[in-house]
Amino acid sequence: MKLSESIIRYPLNKENILLINPITGAIDIAPNKILTQMSEEDKNYLTSRGYFLSGKERLSALKNLQKTYEQHSENVPYRFYILTTLNCNFGCPICYEKKTLENSEATLEKLEKIIQAIHTFQQEHKIEDKKMNLIIFGGEPLCVSDKEIIHYILDSAAQRNWEVIIVTNGSRVKDFIDLFVKYSKTISGFRVTLDGPPEIHDARRPYR
Ligand code: SF4
């Protein structure tokens, strides 16, 4: 008996291979020799992991996968990232946006077009309001010179019953508390980037 061609195989080293069964979701590390000589014991084990399905079992597994996919699609949120600025008040050595930090702030005019484009996308794809999420992102998205930029995004989302998540290094949150309180029903979460305990965080993420 041979493994089906639909099994994904990744050699790990001289002795072992990683097997992935995309139909059942089984993932196993097995000896290489299983590909050429399969003992009864190996066969029983792999059968118990769903590697050898009959035509009927295979069809039933695929139908279940389709059902799971459809249920997942019903609930999956749509996330639209809005980069308010690539500027940042931190100077993390690991930052991959280092080269683009300057002169990158969104204008209200651009934001209006962005919100309109997202709205059009929602209508065209008939997406329910509750699945719509705006992610305020940067650089450090709260390093904008005009507070109205954050206000505009929050207000646009509130008017449409969309939700907003803010990804921030946390350093400027105090300056926006009044807005965050006003739009607390629209903001579903903050993602504050922290690198461990204070001494490690501060060493890795210094102010510029
Ligand atoms: S806080 Fe984020 S955007 Fe700012 S320098 Fe650090 S990694 Fe880059």
Sum up the structure in keywords:
3-stranded antiparallel sheet, binds iron/sulfur cluster, 208 residues, 6 helices, alpha/beta, 4-stranded parallel sheet, 7 strands
How would you characterize this protein structure?
The structure is a single chain. With 208 residues, the chain is of the alpha/beta class. The chain has 6 helices and 7 strands. The protein has helices at 40-48, 55-75, 108-124, 148-160, 177-182, 198-204, and strands at residues 8-11, 16-20, 27-31, 78-83, 132-137, 163-168, 187-192. The longest helix is centred in the first third of the chain and has 21 residues, at 55-75. It is elongated. Iron/sulfur cluster (SF4) binds at residues 88, 90-92, 95, 97, 138-140, 169, 205.
Beta-strand percent range: 15-25%
Question: Spans of 5+ residues with little confidence (pLDDT < 50)?
Answer: none
Order of neighbouring strands in the sheet with most strands: 4-5-6-7
Kindly report the name of the CATH homologous superfamily of the largest domain: Aldolase class I
Percent of residues in helices comes to 25-40%
Q: Domains counted in the coordinates: how many?
A: 2
Second-tier CATH architecture of the largest domain: Alpha-Beta Barrel
The radius of gyration is: 25 Å
Distance, first to last CA? 63 Å
